[in-house]
Design brief:
The protein is of the alpha/beta class. Helix content is 36%, strand content 29%. It has 11 helices and 14 strands. A hairpin with a 2-residue loop joins strand 4 and strand 5.
């Protein structure tokens, strides 16, 4: 089977802000045609800066990036024709209607009047906004506004779509509706790069995920492979009113079947292959040694598990 050709490529991509803040550090990425690729990490990890450099909004300090074979720094106008961008903030024109936001975007990218009108109608139907076509955009709900921004981003038919935290602030129903639309766009052949700090979003949508922390890629693979790399299939999360670090050391040394432990946000994360029969042992051992437990839960391996294993901190910090 032939490997799809690269659509997004970076080498040594670095951004240092005034004051020496290194937001992105020597980034090496290859995103293949037709895949949904996720940049997953906590706020401040460098995801938005990376997206900004790839979409010509931010000039790199060093390194290079190409989208569709076009150098985004040397040929930004050409690169912009190849990409659709959905930023974190609402950038819809509030003086225009829903339909006009699409129509004028198409005209800006060179569509003739007839094509821009017909494409606007088609996208309004596809994104379930036809009944709001003549409404002002400030009358839209958050979910509707986000769908309109995605529709606008694909109005000029770009092969590559960038979405920066596309579901941040949306209610669960709106989030799922947007996931469905992104699945449709993926099925139509769009290459999609999205940034997110929602592990469920990356797991649900992405073919491959790069986990980013402090401007560096610390892991990159399919969601399934990343979860398998954590080693533990199950995590016990134990809270105590006593010293969690001491409890972590006790559980690691005394409980058979414990693969690793980490203290995150005052709670002990205990990695095991299976929790069967372990819970009573953990409770008895902890209380026998003066560690009163205040909470105990069990979770299957997730992308957050991987992040905790790699960094020792919570993905949402």
């Amino acid at each position: 089977m032939t490997t799809p050709s690269p659509v997004i490529e970076t080498s040594g991509l670095t951004k240092v802000y005034p004051g020496g803040v290194r937001a992105v550090d020597d980034l090496e990425l290859v995103v293949r045609a037709g895949e949904i690729f996720g940049l997953l990490g906590p706020n401040g990890a460098g995801k938005t800066t990376t997206a900004g450099m790839l979409t010509t909004r931010i000039i790199p300090t060093s390194g290079w990036a190409r989208v569709g074979g076009v150098d985004v720094v040397a040929r930004p106008a050409e690169a912009k024709r190849l990409i659709g961008v959905v930023p974190q903030t609402n950038t819809l024109d509030r003086s225009l209607t829903v339909r006009e936001n699409l129509y004028f975007h198409g005209r800006f990218f060179g569509m003739d009047v007839r094509t821009a009108r017909s494409e606007a109608v088609r996208l309004l139907e596809q994104f379930r906004l036809a009944d709001r076509a003549d409404a002002r955009v400030d009358a839209l709900s958050g979910g509707m506004a986000q769908r309109l921004m995605v529709a606008r981003a694909v109005m000029h038919r770009p092969p590559v779509l960038f979405l920066d935290e596309p579901t941040a602030g949306l209610d669960p129903q709106s989030r799922i509706a947007l996931w469905e639309i992104l699945g449709q766009l993926h099925g139509e052949g769009h290459t999609i790069l999205l940034t997110t700090h929602y592990m469920e979003e990356a797991d649900q949508l992405c073919d491959r995920v790069a986990i980013i922390d402090q401007g560096k890629v610390i892991a990159l693979d399919t969601p399934g492979a990343l979860k398998r790399s954590a080693g533990a299939e199950t995590t016990l999360i134990v809270s105590t009113s006593a010293d969690p670090t001491a409890l972590a050391s006790l559980l690691l040394s005394e409980v058979a079947g414990v693969l690793d432990v980490a203290v995150v946000d005052g709670r002990v994360h205990v990695g095991v292959h299976s929790s069967q029969g372990l819970l009573p042992l953990v409770v008895q051992l902890a209380e026998r040694n003066g560690f009163p437990l205040t909470d105990l839960s069990v979770t299957e391996a997730t992308l957050e598990t991987v992040f905790i294993r790699l960094t020792g901190k919570d993905l949402r910090e």
